[in-house]
């Protein structure tokens, strides 16, 4: 039996830490829930925190959140697909946008549903994922302001998501200036500069966040307390709101070197032999999870004496060396998780989700 465990008290601690921090800075924020892949018991824990705004990249997840708390503000955090327009108007109060044609369709659907749909226009600031090019911002906004049933509540950006470009004071000041230019040009108020994510938190902690940035969208730091600038953790935050556990299904002493003619395995990998390992033996352990659920590089064993060897579709192999901790069949091996590992596990129907 493999399972992910969410520690409720640690989640509450990190939420309060971030909420207090943002209140001190006069910043509004919402919780990004896409990590949970619509797992209702985990979404309920988010709602129980008293969260008033949630962000997700799957409309079905926002629908579940609306069912759990109808008055919560839901934000769809990627450019909408044409076929999702109707559902986005139904279940997302706000969406992040980069294309005029898409916003026009949102406007038409919002009119049909007799709703006012709020949008944040994303600006390209160098990471080369989604975003309107800076030179086109004013002209882009000129078109949007003419559309009915659409209210522009902010402009924003995403950094570090594609090419690893880090946020800086200069980039965020530049984004804040676009807001002022638009407000002066069109005589419209733009409430939010939504440029804050986990990667921007170190600027807040170092008191380097430009005053114009007043909205954050935070997921990863809530669950891991990451400081992405230092590749470490934020002092005072819990680093393991989520952990993974998998059961031992085999332990056998085996050679370190495979025997026979070697070819690529089903993952396209070719085993490299270390000549010094010929004749050596080690205890090999198999746990009941595989590539269908997780990639080994995203798992961090809590027991530092063990080493991940590799995985096939449904099994993961661990080197226990001399098995100093005397693992047995049926024992559970515990792992800390990296973000992408947790995302895979949460998306697997074969891994149980538990709240403690």
Describe this structure as you would to a colleague:
The protein is of the alpha/beta class. It folds into 2 domains: 8-233, Alanine racemase (TIM Barrel, Alpha-Beta Barrel); 242-355, Elongation Factor Tu (Ef-tu), domain 3. It is built from 10 helices and 18 strands. It has helices spanning 8-25, 40-48, 59-68, 85-91, 100-112, 137-144, 169-186, 201-205, 220-224, 339-346; strands at residues 3-6, 28-32, 53-56, 73-76, 94-97, 117-122, 150-156, 192-196, 215-218, 226-227, 232-233, 242-255, 281-287, 299-301, 307-311, 316-319, 332-337, 352-355. Strands 1, 12, 13, 14, 15, 16, 17 and 18 form an 8-stranded mixed sheet that branches. α5 links the parallel β5 (94-97) and β6. The longest helix has 18 residues, at 8-25. The two termini are 17 Å apart. The mean pLDDT is 96. GO terms for molecular function: alanine racemase activity; pyridoxal phosphate binding. Its cofactor is pyridoxal 5'-phosphate. This is Putative amino acid racemase.
Number of beta strands: 18
Structural class: alpha/beta
> What is the domain total for the residues?
2
Number of helices: 10
Strand content: 25-35%
- Biggest sheet descriptor: 8 strands, mixed
Low-confidence stretches: none
Fourth CATH level, the homologous superfamily of the largest domain = Alanine racemase
| Net shape | elongated
Instruction: Indicate the percent of residues in helices.
Output: 25-40%
Look at the structure and give the mean pLDDT. 96
SSE order, one letter for each helix or strand = EHEHEHEHEHEHEHEHEHEEEEEEEEHE
- CA-atom Rg in angstroms: 24 Å
CATH class of the largest domain: Alpha Beta
CATH architecture of the largest domain: Alpha-Beta Barrel
CATH topology of the largest domain: TIM Barrel
Distance between the termini: 17 Å
